Hints:
By secondary structure, the chain is an alpha+beta fold.
Amino acid sequence: MAALLHRYKTGEGQKIDCNLLSSQVSIMTHIAANYLISGWEARRWGTGHESIVPYQAFKTKDDKYLIVGAGNQNLFEILCKRISAEHLLEDSRYQDNQSRVENRESLIAALSEIFAQKEMSVWLETFEGYGLPYGPIQNMQQVFSDPQVLHNNMIQEFQHSTAGTVRVPGPAVKYSTINTSHCTAPPRLSEHTQQVLQGMLGYSDDKIQQLHQDGAIGILKDAENSS
């Protein structure tokens, strides 16, 4: 988008370099910043957050896992009140995020004991509407039967010439005037070779056949007949 805007304003195009290595390094965000600024080497925290506590998964009574994130003091207060653990707010070890990070082990142990006392459905109802980041860790069946996922049309279905009906996840981005729900099946090997060479590049039938005979390209028989 930035390159398109630049071209719109200046008439100058851009060569865009976006490689996987740089992308991975850039999304390390605060973990990378902690190292670059302070020299702190990253550690493994499981589902936990390195510099925000509590912000991780907790096991519920029915052996499910709920992610809860108290990213600031207000959210921590909401969390403690909703789970009837106001006594944690009075504990000097948990008075602010820095203190909670330093006393991570005892706080997580206390919260884990509380979350283990009720089922997932109870906790979801407890936190609903209070502005606290939370959500269940789900398997694939649960994800794709979730009412909000279905409402967002996140399952797309199409017909494949050999595999039959195929379902795939839909695009996350939706537009007000552009339909992103229409999709075609992934092509078989060489299925569109002739169509591309002939329709887009203007190759003649003779040239395409010569490339095929030389082994440079493949052509599906049914694709060739349909063209």
